[in-house]
Specification:
2 helices; disordered N terminus; single chain; 455 residues; eight-stranded antiparallel β-barrel; mainly beta; 37% strand; eight-stranded antiparallel beta sheet; 29 strands
Length: 455
């Protein structure tokens, strides 16, 4: 993530190498879905007030409940996020006072993107959510969708609206969770004449105006069944990420590592996200540490390399309550459909050893299953997160390969105390697969699965 502006010497959340961290916590609200009565067009309407007028959007609660709940709670500030400009966990509403920083307006793509939290294309709320693709929702024009990095389950807070054009290349890549109202007279509490398409005309203006030319003033939500303000309350848990700030004691080995001693262990399904500044002005997100369901808690975490003479840090914990993402590869088997690769019909099978640092990689061609290519794994680079992972494998006799994995399941919960149970094996996931030919060659999505060792 690029650097952000913010922070001051007097801020108690700042932490020096030489000092013990001070306590600073931001309480994260539990995200739970409100029970809303279905309506003819949409359960919830979003009213996005911009400097060009109000855009009314019907939200698809039934088809994309996670994305809708994520959007509503971030816009209302009822669930915390990480501010990429300051590195602090905050309940400041996202989207408000942010511009549509990126637009496209040509014969193939018409869109306007916002929601980075940084004002450009580099920010994020610090967490990701699962994709939700529904066959009835296609990018046929005037949709509200989740932005992402192109990898499975990589959306967070970024969103975009599309104009009067179909963009089929976005289907099943970006979650659609809203539709721009085609007739504002159908929007609850909106005194418009039948057939009034003001919302879509405003979207056209936003896209035509270009980058940074339109600002969001505020977003409100209406329950279409009651006409009253819509909120998400303690009804049904969706397992969305929960953010809190955390602190600890920092120790430094110059030129080698910066370690954080946490006041309480980092437990399973929890991500530690460190943010660093060298000048109290710009902030960078460092590599995260994720503890998966199959790993032990950690009390001491390396957060930096100790190369800088003086640094300041902020730390946030992100809980993924129902995550099935493993952080250890020990004794796992990854099976990947490689049909997305041009000219390749077969499967990759990675069988990891008991340490999770080696094993065997096999490429099985469908056309020649009796003569698979196989070699010992010599290098593994694994970067897990709450909803997926980046995994790079180097094996003798095979080209280095990179998998962008997105896990398509949530842990079942114990009906007695609602705590997560171990996931069923195999765990379904999707992947984007790349081979190394001097550059990463990103291909389409295919299915994959992870088989767990016998319990």
């Amino acid at each position: 993530m690029d650097a952000r502006r913010g922070g001051s010497l007097s801020d108690p959340c700042l932490q020096r190498h030489e000092s013990r961290a001070k306590s600073a916590r931001v309480k994260a609200h539990a995200l739970l879905l409100a029970a809303l009565t279905p309506a003819a067009n949409a359960d919830i309407f979003a009213h996005m007030e911009t400097t060009r007028g109000v855009v009314n959007i019907g939200l698809h609660l039934d088809e994309a409940p996670i994305s809708v709940a994520n959007f509503v709670t971030l816009a209302q500030g009822t669930r915390a996020r990480i501010d990429p400009r300051t590195g602090v966990a905050t309940n400041e509403p996202l989207y408000v006072n942010e511009t549509f920083f990126r637009t496209g307006n040509n014969d193939f793509s018409k869109f306007a993107q916002t929601g980075s939290g940084s004002g450009d294309n580099t920010g994020s709320p610090g967490f990701t959510i699962r994709d939700e693709f529904h066959p009835s929702l296609r990018h046929t024009g005037y949709t509200l969708s989740m932005a992402n990095t192109g990898a499975p389950n990589s959306g967070g807070g970024g969103i975009f609206i599309t104009g009067d054009i179909s963009i089929p290349t976005y289907d099943d890549l970006h979650t659609i969770f809203g539709t721009i109202s085609p007739d504002d007279s159908l929007v609850p509490g909106n005194p418009k004449e039948p057939g009034d398409s003001a919302s879509r005309l405003i979207v056209d203006q936003i896209i035509s105006a270009g980058d940074h030319q339109t600002t969001i003033i505020g977003i409100t939500f209406t329950d279409s069944s009651t006409g009253e303000s819509a909120e998400f309350e303690n009804e049904v848990s969706l397992g969305l990420p929960l953010v809190t700030s955390t602190t600890g004691s920092i120790s430094v080995t110059p030129g080698s590592s910066v370690d954080l001693q946490l006041p309480s262990p980092l437990t399973e399904r929890t991500d530690l996200v460190p943010m660093r500044t060298l000048d109290l002005s710009t902030w960078d997100e460092l590599s995260n540490t994720f503890i998966g369901f199959n790993s032990s808690p950690e009390s001491v975490v390396q957060v930096d390399t100790g190369q800088e003479s003086s640094s300041f840090y902020r730390f946030s914990k992100i809980e993924y309550p129902l995550s099935v993402s493993p952080s250890s590869l020990a004794d796992l088997t990854l099976t990947v459909d490689a049909s997305a690769m041009a000219g390749l019909n077969g499967d990759y099978v990675a069988e990891f050893d008991s340490a999770g640092t080696g094993g065997t990689l096999t490429l099985i061609y469908d056309s020649d299953m009796e003569n698979p290519l196989s070699g010992p794994i010599t290098e593994i680079y694994h970067f897990p997160g709450g909803n997926g992972a980046t995994l790079i494998i180097v094996a003798t006799g095979l080209r280095p390969i990179r998998f962008e994995l997105g896990y398509d399941a949530y842990c079942p919960t114990n009906p007695v105390d609602n705590t997560p149970l171990p996931p069923a094996s195999p765990i379904p996931c999707r992947h984007r697969l790349s081979l190394w030919y001097g550059f990463w060659d990103i291909r389409g999505l295919s299915d994959a699965s992870i088989t767990l060792p016998p319990s």
